[in-house]
Amino acid sequence: MKELDERKSAAMDYPCSWSYQIIGDDEDSLRRAVREIIQDRTCRMDLSRSSEKGKYQSFCLTVVVESEGHRLAVYEALRAHPAVKIVL
């Protein structure tokens, strides 16, 4: 348990690269959502996986975040976008 507590309290060095797993049912809509949220920042969005019947697609979105607040703001914006079903 002590090791887990130490990891929680470890400070992150910002800016840093951060990855979000995003899941939706339409690749074009997900890409538009990312452009709206990330705007002019450089990011990378790679297909991770598709469901067996192709209804859902999972992407790994990697972006440089400037601070803890920025990291959480991107997460919340992705979570709130109608094209994004799940953010991890």
Question: In words, what does this structure look like?
Answer:
- The protein has 3 helices and 4 strands.
- By secondary structure, it is of the alpha+beta class.
- The protein has one domain: 2-Layer Sandwich (Alpha-Beta Plaits), CATH 3.30.70.
- A 4-stranded antiparallel β-sheet has the order 2-3-1-4.
- 15% of the residues are buried.
Give a short summary of the structure.
The protein is 38% helix and 32% strand. The chain is an alpha+beta fold and 88 residues long.
Question: What layout of secondary structure does this protein have?
Answer:
Blueprint: H1 2-9, E1 16-24, H2 27-38, E2 43-50, E3 57-65, H3 68-80, E4 86-87
Antiparallel strand pairs: 1-3, 1-4, 2-3
Structural class per helix/strand content?
Answer: alpha+beta
Largest sheet: 4 strands, antiparallel
> Would you count the extended β strands for me?
4
Give the SSE order as H and E letters: HEHEEHE
CATH architectural designation: 2-Layer Sandwich
| Amount of beta strand | 25-35%
Task: Quote the distance from N terminus to C terminus.
Answer: 24 Å
How many separate domains? 1
CATH topology: Alpha-Beta Plaits
What number is the mean pLDDT? 90
CATH class: Alpha Beta
H/I helix tally: 3
Task: Based on the model shown, name its key terms.
88 residues; Alpha-Beta Plaits; alpha+beta; 38% helix; 3 helices; four-stranded antiparallel beta sheet; elongated
